[in-house]
User: Fold these one by one.
Assistant:
Number 1:
Amino acid sequence: MSDHLHHHCGRFRTSPLTRREMLGTVGGGFGLLAFNALFGRETLAESLLSTVGGGDARSLLATHIPARARSVIFLYMDGGPSQVDTFDPKPRLVDLDGKPFPMQIAPTQFNNNGSTLPSPWKFARHGQAGHEVSTLFPHIAKVADELCVIRSMTSDFSEHTNANYFLHTGSGIAGRPSMGAWSSYGLGSDNQDLPGFVVIDGGLIPPGGLDCFGGGFLPARFQGSVMHAQGDAIADATPSDSPDEQARKRALIARLDSRYAHDTGAESIESAIRNHELAYRMQSSVPELAALDGESDETKALYGFDAPDAATRTYARECCLARRLVDRGVRFVEVTCPKTIGDRWDQHGDLKAGHEANARAVDQPIAALLIDLRRRGLLDSTLVVWSAEFGRTPFAQGTNGRDHNPFGFTIWMAGGGVRAGAVIGATDEFGYRAVDKPYKIHDLHATMMHLMGVDHRRLTFRSGGRDMRLTDVHGNLIEDAIG
Amino acid sequence: MSLDSGIFACIGALFCAFATHSADKVDFDREIRPILVANCFKCHGPHDEARKAGLRFDSFEGATATLRSGRQAVVPFSPDGSAILGRVSNLDIDERMPPVGHEPLAPAQIALVRRWIDEGGEFSAPWAFRPLEAVSTPVVDDQEWCDGDIDRFVLATREHVDLARPKHDLDPSALLRKLSFDLRGLPPSEADVKAFVAQPTAARFDEWVDRYLADSAFGERWGRHWLDLARYAETLGHEFDYEMPDAWRYRDYVIDALNQDIPLDRFVREQIAGDLQTPRAAMGLSNVAPIATAWWFLGPAVHAPVDVRQDEADRIAGDIDVLGRSLLGLSVACARCHDHKFDPIPAADYYALAGVARNTRRVNGFVQTDSQADGLLRRAVESFEASARIARLEGATKHRTTPGVSDVSGASDAHGATVVDELADHGSSWKCSGSAFACKTPGLHWGSIDSARLDRKLVGSARSTTRSVEHRYLHVRLRGSDATIRPIIDNYWLDERNPLLFEGLLRKVPHHDGAGEWRTETFDLVRFRGERLYIELIDDGDGWIEVDWIAASDDATPPDATAWDVDEDPVLDPARRIEVDAMFADARQAATALAACTPPVRAMIAEEGGSFDESIHVRGASHSPGAVTSRGQLRLLGEHSPTSIEGSGRLELAQSLSNPKNPFLWRTMANRVWLKLFGRGIVETPDDFGQLGSPPWSAELLDFLASNLADHRSFKSLIREIVRSHAYRAVADVGELPGSAWGPLAVRRLDAESIRDAMLAASGRIDLAMGGPSVAAHLSDHMQGRGRPEKSGPVDGAGRRSVYLAVRRNFLDPFMRVFDAPIPSTSCGRRHESNVPAQSLALLNSELVRTIGEYWGDRLGADGQTSEDSRVESVWYAMFARPPRDDESLMAREFLDAERAAQPTASDATTKDRAAYASLTQSLFATKEFIFLR
């Protein structure tokens, strides 16, 4: 049952003048956090609405709480990797191999429940922290000490699309703002020439489509901008005109626009003109950003640009581009998975071949990303989150697959402000349900926001009569994960 | 500062202005209620369960009631005797209200509360909940400026804060451009602009208003506004983004209804219960009213829900959200889990609506197109019935020896099965769409429901009554060919696209020549015990299906159907037989003619289902039923009458929503019209008129317009009234913050559809064909994901207006999105007007803009006989509805020369011209004057 659906009343107006009304009088360009600091207003505010693309830059010194991370890289593991095959070993499954699963089974998506299915992969302890990682991830195992592993995450949905919306927006229904949109809305962008929320499309847009990255009721500019790691990085950002022709057009437009701005005296025309100039700058900054071939040979090899597997090569470019984006101040980067022989991590059958293909695609690039961020001094200010919409059942679907399991699964975090080396929470002895410190997606969101310096309870937007927030009326910090 | 912030600024300023000008008496609505809403209602509001210390502080009775302490929160005229003042100003944070964790009231607020109590501490109902009453027109000093009553209302708000009239009016060409976009979503033609500028009188303007209102483009423009409210889309979103193939009929219905200007109350009733209204022929269909009911089903839908009951509850929550926001301007969906915390909307009202929705079925229905069809069907049924009546009188009915034939519904038969429907009534309780099942009269047969009774070629569908699933197995005896049978659980129908978790429910009856063998289909319902079920039969081709016995049991083995047979041949007096045969032949003849008519069209429509009242779901949980609440009876409409409701309650709901005394409908709709014409509403939160929404800047003007709408029930008439006001043609004064009272905005950005349509119109590429299936979505490489159509549509949408582009939830058009076309998840009464670099990128580089520019460049370049000046002038008229100024002409000519010079020297003159004009028009598409209105 979807608890969140039933407690969706958010926060309410806390002052007789809405922030809209207050901030509207202050006007554009005035940093919202500074404004809040000056006037002691309670919440991060909508003054962003009154600033324009170029005017969002602001210091994190005035966040609700000291920020530990400046940016987020969200490694979305589309389809749901199995917790008992990756970071949550369960030897008891071996004892019951092929026998009826001993716990009561909740309704599953495919209703084709088989017997207990132990992991086909071996686990070993790695690094000083002794993280248990399966042989699916030999590269990640080498950087295991960077990880803070949470083995007790839960979701409210056992269906991809609901669960994806839930993971991304805190609501199982389409149409709410994505966590990246909230981050961009709350914190703005540190780069005047790039969007605040970028989704790097590896080829698999998750079930639920672009709504997973949408801005919902937030103004459209906070929605995720989809980038590709090959070819044209952003739609419409590559001019087909020669530089000379661009210059002629730009001059003509500028002369007509300045006359119109003068005639109307409208500030919105002025800001539209500034945005137009920003668009011109993006036409050069975006291709520069996406020019991955300028990376050193050593770096390219580290990520796996020349890996034998095409999916690995794709994901390598995605991870490298993610690093370049956070290096340039993009607030929130989500990285989606490449196509492999399996259908995402969604192995309803043929677990072994599917999980191996998916792991092969992401393992080396993810390890390289952590190493590269670390050596460039970016990891301390970059929160890396590895998560899917749910995990998989410890019993078989059919004979050799696993069905969706929202009742207990593993995610991990690394970098900015995270307690590296920690293992938090536990599932039961079969890896089916979270039993020790069960957490909800809202708690993950609250913790991510906290690490970025934002109190999730105080980042709101008024829509449909309520002050909406990413965590709805929920969300507790995962204290043990905070370093 | 962006346009958005300008709007915010104006409210802020308005607020301050009123605060300083209310020297006489404290205004409860404006000054006190916001303080109470923000600080008190969460614990002391209308929500019973959340209430603390027994204090209800949202009414005079509650505030002056004696508390446990023996004191009163408010003692009228005695601030010092009122407990409230001591609490809010208490320095001890354990005693202070609002409690720890909340900001204390500011001294100025405390002073206001003190003055309010000193003046009597009176409450008033929230403005939106007051009845709609006649308002008197205010007296203003500057009568000369006022063309009519609307101007008096708006000028009064200015004079109240010592502002004079706006100094200037739009020049005629800008005014006509604004009118044309506002009423039609298209730019005015060059000829229109020239004609109006030549004689820009009020009378001529009125003629243009009427002409644009009568233009069919009006319905396309204002229909799109309605589609925003209806969360219109043509796919279901979610994982696979399944199509709703008939959704476009709803879009066409809306456009036509607005063009016809059908009475607004009728329009609303058709949305809710068009299938239950008197028929209304239009658009070549015998009755379009049922098509309106697709309104209920335009939301997203989930396939393979693990919990089908919860899925239904979630879907209904989305529908109620849309109903509340769009038709009432209230967040009714907030009352799903508890009584609304701020507005007087009890959870019972939510479940009154949920009851209506649960008893409403989504049907793939049939609507007749042939004008003969209805008459032929009536004749066929009547003749058949007459022949059968005589035959029955003569005792010539066949009998059968079946188990259960003597049982009444609900009794156990010899096999221990509960006969739920042995169809002795010939399916008279079944609901039908189309003509195949329309004849429910028995012929010479025992009871059955049969799609071949009149003619096998007829198409249609039939649905049984709704029942609870009490046994594991359902047995249905049937025969037929090329038809479909399916039990529907909790109104879940998506198994027709993806059977997962519902395998085996939807069954095709295979092709079979001849009369067909009786057999029994058995359905296993083990996962659906306790849920609600009905059975649907579909014959949408030349096939047929007949069902004569339905039973439920916990035994998987059905009775042996082949043993049930006819025990005797009917006997009929020969003279009577001739008579019977003649009538029967007439029925057949009519049915054959009917089958030869233009076939009916398919449409997604509502149908009456069961008649259950819904239980309140405790804390919103679908499996925790609380008190039963009478469906369709909304207390907030003040009509909690005890009359019993027979069907779903939709008819009664439609009636109460469209009642001339329902203030919510008329106020929200009047405000929406104003918002679309001025860029901001009289109420800034068009979908929330509750206490958390913004108050109107002129409640009097809003009620004046709402009364107009309730009296005339005409959008066109209200629009005419508003655009003929002086306010509509006034220009914002430079330097004046637009909202220190009412004031025109300096500029408004065109919405996504208008920008695209204006490019098509200016270039001549536009195809003004109306209606029909949508143009397939153009898919860029950046649009990926499950449910992506195999084929991409044309980049320029074949020149069709934007309202005819496919709206695919998971593949929304990026050009439209970047200009804030809504995400169709729920009602959107006010679009964002964002201002982002991606808009410039789209206008500079998108394939769409380049394609249209090239098309236009080709036309202009090929027109070598016309002078450059004339061509440039035509471009300026098409883009900006005005001729170029001298310096602009010069600039354009220089630009064209430079462009030509940059072309390869080998190119011929026409090729160079084409490229140069394409560059010019593409550049102008990116100017601000093109995408903004004054």
Number 2:
Amino acid sequence: MSVDATTVKRIGRLARIRIEEEEVAGYQNELNAILGFVEQLGEVNVDGVEPMTSVTPMQLRRRDDVVTDGGYPERIVKNAPLTEDNFFMVPKVVE
Amino acid sequence: MTELTKLSLADARKGLKDKSFSALELTEAYIGAIDAANDKLNAYVATTPDQARDMAKASDAKLAKGEAGLLEGIPLGVKDLFATKGVHTQAASHILDGFKPEYESTVTANLWRDGAVMLGKLNMDEFAMGSSNETSYYGSVINPFRAEGSNANLVPGGSSGGSASAVAAWLCAGATATDTGGSIRQPAAFTGTVGIKPTYGRCSRWGTVAFASSLDQAGPIARTVEDAALMLQSMSGFDVKDLTSVDLAVPDFAAAVERGVKGLTIGVPREYRMDGMPSEIEALWNQGLEWLKAEGATVKDISLPHTKYALPAYYIVAPAEASSNLARYDGVKYGLRVSGKDITDLYELTRAAGFGREVKRRIMIGTYVLSAGYFDAYYVKAQKVRTLIKKDFEDAFNAGVDAVLTPATPSAAFAIGDEALAADPVAMYLNDVFTVTVNMAGLPGIAVPAGKDGKGLPLGLQLIGKPFDEETLFAAARVIEKSTGTDFSPTRWW
């Protein structure tokens, strides 16, 4: 499988990365080189093989559904580029 | 006092305990060494000398009271991937511009608990994506080794290139590092240092910037096998804050170092004899087997039939997980923000400006293989191949193999700005051909310097172990370390 220029732009939009027109061809070549490389997995017979979900045989631990941390909003927003009253500020989302 | 920096971590511990020098003197020696060298090597992206002096003074007080921790007073460098409270933590990326976390990673908290001293944050490939440390926003790290008779700069490997360069050039007594496809073992091999990626789950991932969560593991880079064992001892341990952290007691790794290999069976996978392998790598591998045999190990040919599929499967799984993990960098919560006309514009412009080319490329591959219609063909298929790769190793271990010996890398360190590698992403990815299988199977792997190539550059061997059997790796790596009889110190030019 290989990607065309339209697909490169669509992936950029899905990934929320602005791809300028002059960058499209470069990404297209690089992505196709990588997709061409992974193509060889087609040779492997995986009939009846389970996909790996955990590399170590383990059960995910459970815990009581209680609050264990928090209560310091000023520390949560400390590194944000723009805040007001311990809220993250973003451009208007709902008109 | 500059010679203090030449001591191994283990010898520095002895010196501190014997009061031959103080923790503050040792720390000052390293601060001076960094000041003198970092312009040339670019190993550190941030230094914390005041914090280091305070920590060293606290260590001296504890040493005086006889309350020294495992790494009391030992100056270490920390890869920029580990969150360090109030200190530069950017994964060597522009998108985390100015980020100073309000919390400490579990791995570094363990080191400070045991008395270690933080010298600063170490350069790396951006978000740990790279094999040459050339993708860092802070510029390339330089390898302290140069080919004999040459002044050309070489890469230290990656992604933990700053860690490897700093350890080899005596700019810290040891360093934290991380390994997703070979990022501890390949730079260790390129710099004549020892690096171990422990079993997945041995070190907590909490507070470590995530790249590919099912593959990422922290580990140390150090100058000797014993030093690596001491550091891993401190870094390891169960942590409730990481759901994949394993609740197992941490063995006394240092006690295993001199255990020897008598009676062990060492597997030699025929699939690692790649076409076009340089003869000196093959000779080194055979030499390593001879050393282990001479100390009482048995060598056994084995087959790991899915080896060649590990790298292509990795380049689906790792970018897929990365595209998901790196979705959090959006210009809102932390780091860089580029304003736009609406929220989508803000996201797209921030991420376009904040991520480097390699990171963008991998996010895009990951986004593509996870997108509707392609998920089964790529991601699910790769995870099935991963099951087969793990089974190859299980079959070998079930047939009586205790550890597997392979080369660590297909070559010695290469030149900065290699044009052939820059033009072809897949050629760069092939650097990890011997190491990536270990991440895919979640196993422990250690790289130990074993010889030099024709130009005097270090070459490493890799030992792969059973899950949670890092002790055997330390013991076998120590046999190789003792057998080489080679000095892996770089000749100082910086």
